[in-house]
Amino acid sequence: MSDQPHVYPVPDDFASKAWADKATYQAMYQRSLDDPEGFWAEQAECLDWFKAPSKIKHTVFDTHDVDIRWFEDGCLNVSSNCLDRHLETRGDQTAIIWEGDDPKDSKTLTYRQLHERTCQLANALKDMGVKRGDTVTLYMPMIPEAAMAMLACARIGAVHSVVFGGFSPDALAQRVKDAGSRVVITADESVRGGKQVPLKDNVDAALTREGSDVCEKVLVVQRTGGEIDWHEGRDLWFHEQVDPQSTDCPAEEMGAEDPLFILYTSGSTGAPKGLKHTTGGYLLHAALTHRYVFDYHDGDIYWCTADVGWVTGHSYIVYGPLANGATTLMFEGVPSYPTNGRMGEIVDKHQVNILYTAPTAVRALMAHGDDVMDSSSRDSLRLLGSVGEPINPEAWEWFHRVIGKQRCPIVDTWWQTETGGIMIAPLPGATDLKPGSATLPFFGVQPALVDNEGNILEGATEGNLVMLDAWPGQARSIWNNHERFLQTYFSTYKGMYFTGDGCRRDEDGYYWITGRVDDVLNVSGHRMGTAEIESSLVAHESVAEAAVVGFPHDIKGQGIYIYVTLADDVEPSDELKKELTKWVRKDIGPIASPDVIQWAPGLPKTRSGKIMRRILRKIAANECDGLGDTSTLADPSVVDDLIEHRANR
Ligand code: WT7
């Protein structure tokens, strides 16, 4: 077998019909670097401005003074860009197709209906005292009200902070407190895979935690009618507040650099950080990438399987598609319910043309064999997309051959919560594909690879992935903590944005992301800090010390491997393993469930007391031959014990 990956050339029909062919991509990309001001001024014309910007780009990537402003004297409103401006031409077109957890449940909302409901909700929020600049936390199921809530906040200039509905009360409390939200919007319960998740109970619990009493009002969507506690004076039913409101609510004129939302994500240290995204640049980046990378054309039915609790849901279920007047499908459930054929069945039912999903979902299906897709034809599909983690070539090929029936290009899109939108990805009419590579940078994106000293490496090589200049959708800061923003992203390599990812570039200039180089895990496309899980564990009375690393996992990409040193006099047992698993799930959420727990009488440490994670990662991966230099360890014998009792072989 040759080392050269199989190349999938651009299909002819894409080259002729797509928004960009090879020459267009190259010309536009080059122009975006040579003349960023001119390029972005022109692109910004695709948005509707109350006041068009005259200042286009003011960006400083200096370690001591990071200052990122795009279109700073322009005024616009995100909700009127996603709704009002479409009413004349496509008021009766479907904006959102909602597919419930139960296959018998689905409905559609036209642009006109979505506009009316959003205006009503915006008026209700105003009645509840929400003002421009206030933050509102959303802890919601995947129902159209989630999109309405985001758009209603945007309409009145409030800043939303969506917290994934799978997070625990403690995780929610931490985020409500940090954002300082006086209002939380939730539902009685969400429904996933036939099971109810008690969202309102979780909110009740969260709001008993210290500091989360900043929240004064809870607006509750009735999703299931399940039983919930009611706090008179604090809790309000969504339908009672929203239904009587006027369907007219003028959109606030926001500055391009006014905050649109906060979204929390995990880093290698400390509490989750609330990335701050602003209005003009973010919306332009989301809309432009949605149009070019998914080659979105009028009439296409587009489905992104993410949850609105993650940035993918923000940019590619709600803002990008709606800004482009698209029909976007929102799915409440899970791909394995009621059967493993559900994803294909949804594609057939709604005649989906573009399907954007995650490698972990593809691998889970692949594990069931090709006939898992037999219950659907998927003949409507034209294009596939992947996001969240590197897609291994095997899963890529299966995605292409079985799900896409060898007809559909796959756009493997690399980006991050911090980047706001897609950064490195093929354009289906312009880029030949190589399975496993996110290929080439989007307009205005200037990736580089650097060594550990920050020297820029040229040609085909491998290194740390950085960005040399700003792009419009970039996060501007960390909420309440600009210093941490500088430290996290701009202090490792001077004058550059550091992504935290390692990456290889081949002779054709294609980028191949190799995964995180920091202590961040990526489990089923969910990002988690090892430090967060460790601090949860050491809070348990039986635990003296804990170290968490990732290990290769067939379906999740990475699994969570935990080394635990027990407190004196505590005996290891299977019960205790179960107890610790429950503890972490309760503390952070089910997505942080450990896959493997190993009892560790001692952890490998340097003489200065630093845990050597490199060694722990190798043992977790069952690669015990190449442990490298262990001579700097304070007590090399602990390694032998860990190897002997390793749990993954
Ligand atoms: C991290 C960002 C971007 C939305 C979902 C995740 C990894 C993401 C890819 C890809 C290889 C990828 C990176 C990145 N990642 N997409 N196509 N190929 N790796 O957002 O939670 O902020 O995580 O996900 O490691 O740094 P996020």
Automatic annotation (TrEMBL):
It catalyses: acetate + ATP + CoA = acetyl-CoA + AMP + diphosphate. Mg(2+) binds at residues 538, 540, 543. The keyword Acetylation applies. Its cofactor is Mg(2+). Coiled coil: none annotated. Keywords: Acetylation, ATP-binding, Ligase, Magnesium, Metal-binding, Nucleotide-binding. Residues 532-610 form the AMP-binding enzyme C-terminal domain. The modification N6-acetyllysine is found at residue 610. Belongs to the ATP-dependent AMP-binding enzyme family. PANTHER family: ACETYL-COENZYME A SYNTHETASE (PTHR24095). This is Acetyl-coenzyme A synthetase. It comes from Halomonas halophila. The gene is acsA.
